[in-house]
Amino acid sequence: MAEFNISGRMAVKSLKKQFKEAFGATLRVYKGKQFADDDATLASIRVGDAKGGELKCAGNLKVGNFENKMKELFGVTVQVANKDDSALASNDITIAAAGK
Fold this sequence. Notes:
The chain is of the alpha+beta class. It has one domain. It has helices at residues 12-23, 63-74, 95-98, and strands at 3-7, 26-31, 34-35, 54-58, 77-81. Strand 2 and strand 3 form a beta hairpin. The longest helix is centred in the first third of the chain and has 12 residues, at 12-23. The chain starts with a strand and ends with a helix.
């Protein structure tokens, strides 16, 4: 099963690219209510008192849990969308299923 590690030093475009390659789903990354700049690092768009650290992103993680962990660890709002980015994935499915 595909998986990769996410850290605060990672650029938004790298995160989105690795997410797409690993799971086939699209990842939307926000800074406030706007889409985050692709060249920004996760640490630079952080909001609030995020813990930081690393997150192992595996395909069996539920969409809702992944989105919550990204907010908790990195202070970054993300949403998982389907393969062609036309609709948001349900929080109750795995991120691997979201890309199918």
